[in-house]
Design goal:
4-stranded mixed sheet; 2 domains; Spore Coat Polysaccharide Biosynthesis Protein SpsA, Chain A; globular; 12 strands; about 325 residues; about 50% helix
Amino acid sequence: MFSSPLVSIIIPCYNYGKFLGEALDSIQSQTYDQWECIIVNDGSTDNTEEVALRYVNKDKRFSYFFHENSGHSATRNRAVELSRGEYIQFLDADDMLQPNKLKLQVALLEENRGIGLIYSDVLSFESDDINDRKFTLFHQPEHFPPSGNGDDLIKAIMIDNLFLPGCVLMRKQMYDDAGGNWKKFYGFEDWEFWFRTAYTHWQFYHDAREGTRLLRRHHNNNTSFNGSKMWAVKRQVRKEILDVFTSMHTQGKLNFSTAFIAEIIKEHKKRLAIESVVYHFVYGNIIGGISGVIAHALITKRPFFALYDAAHFLKERIKVKRKLAARAEQRRVED
């Protein structure tokens, strides 16, 4: 029988008071009761404080803090600093957890000391009407290893961000070993952080069991809806990951073969070039897109595919422009 270690549930909240109550209800419904929930209000101007204090006054396991608007990463960092738990569960204020997540996953971590991080699957929904919700299960891509560490994990996370903060229950020790400190990247701060955790000796574990899933709400305020900004930041984060990886290699801090490190650096540079093509041709500057195509061709040594990608994303640019024009016309008519 395992002990009952404390789990710190980390909730940053900015103007999501209308969703926060459901997130906190999902925490109170957990079948594991050894938790603390730290809510940090990131300078909200809505009813976030009112909702949070309603729960704090009824259940002392909730705690509430306010600070001036500093962004999602700084708010999450503040909450972790205030935490006392052996384990950390992240949760965005507009999402929820299935009721057995903590119970099942704490037991798994207690029984498997080499696992540092467990990530769950995602059930997505759109409707705010609790009686009219249809949930869609997000399946992990085939190229992502279900569990493990080392080379395969690095390769998989390098491709893209493959799970959300709310999917994760992790050891506080692993968080510290990775250097903590979520950096400020719009919509991609978690990708950069998971990449850092993959350098540690800890194992990742994919938990597909029913009862452990993240319930993710889709709505117009999700950061993923701003395509132009997301692609711009993705390139920035890719560059950051590459710079950190290269710096750690130079300092002799990576426990990987020279051949593997060279492979990862080359792959990052290739993907950075491709992402530059996507960003500039679809949303940005055509000249920047041409520079990306040249880099793409030189790195991959496949100029035909670079030109094919360029043509494809030019077509996407036309589609995006048409959609934006249609929306502008609709707003003009409505006004």
